[in-house]
Amino acid sequence: MSIKVTRASLPPFEEFCEEIRPLWDSHILTNMGPLHDRFRAALGEYLGCPFVTLFSHGHSALEAALRALRLPAGSRIVTSPFTFASTVHAIVRLGFEPVFCDVLAEDGTLDPSCLEGLVDSRTSAVVPVHVYGNACDADAVEAVAARHGLRVVYDAAQAFGVRLDGRPLVCRGDASVLSFHATKVFNTVEGGAVCFSDPSLAVALDDEKNFGIRDECTCVAAGGNSKFNELQAAMGLCNLRHLGDELLERERLDGVYRRLLGGAVGFFSVREGASRNYSYMPVLLRDAAERDAVADALVCAGVKPRKYFWPLVCDALPYRSVPAEVPVARGLSSRVLCLPIYPGLTLDDVERICGVVLGSVR
Ligand SMILES: *Cc1c(COP(=O)(O)O)cnc(C)c1O
Questions:
Q1: Angle at the Cα of 153 (from 147 to 157), degrees rounded to 5?
Q2: What counts of helices (H) and strands (E) characterise the chain?
Q3: How far apart are the first and last CA of the chain?
Q4: Ligand 1: does its nearest atom lie under 6 Å from the Cβ of 157?
Q5: Confidence band (pLDDT; 50, 70, 90) for 362?
Q6: What pLDDT does 189 receive?
Q7: 54 Cβ closer than 6 Å to some ligand 1 atom
Q8: Closest alpha carbon to 241 in 23, 32, 16, 58
């Protein structure tokens, strides 16, 4: 069997069955039922964030957060091109204009000094990405945002559970968006959440995910449907119980990679005061040729790494006409390779993978 870049975490089968057993009595499968409420409370406690609204997907959570802030129609939103397509698609699908900002070479997150130069009178918000779970320079981003009256919505899809300066990262800015997709460090099969600090945002987020329906006779907005269902909640409740052990396992694998590959490849650095969730194992090769050679050698050995994030989102077909002066992002994108990391990957697997990498770097 081939080793992929990640593998979805599953709880013990019996544990999941036990969690969903009540559904066969209640027949409540969705519409914010008892499991939804239990999971939301457990999640809020785990994250240390009192205000959390659950969504069917991370992407719908991101769109809902941007809509709930009532930004001026057609305004500009600055974001990073060194991310998953969802970040930029959310901005564009809501009719906003994306503005691509370059990233920091050391960790791939939004460069606050470039941000300042991209803001004009039409800019309404910034969407920084905690790429690979690397906390971005939230203090600097928020200082620029405050100077220009911008809203800040963090794409924290890859940063589940990360803390910055002793505080939960998702408590920063106007809102932070999480993804619980099967490939993420914590999953509910599909799923996502918006974490926020101003409780008045809750109503607008609820309207977004449930047709703007407040009660049987009141519909107040043209909301969509992105409700988080009871089976997702059951998976979340189970996976949350095992997350602590899984993070320790990821940390150990990460340590082995660093020890075996140190000197041969580059690693992203972690901001001072930030914790890590070991969600990805990105390494930096010398150049695109070396990256591609390593990737090919791994594929030959039955291992499937991923070139996250190449190509850059700004080079995708829908965005080719959008100006993007992002040399640092371009450089990282051409040299980066994400190696497999997930609970259940063995130390033998990691040693074998590192052997292939070391055998194919120049
Ligand atoms: C996974 C991801 C998303 C989208 O989340 P889904 O739950 O798959 O909709 C958005 N942004 C980033 C950076 C992601 O990694």
A1: 145
A2: 12, 16
A3: 28
A4: yes
A5: confident
A6: 98
A7: no
A8: 16
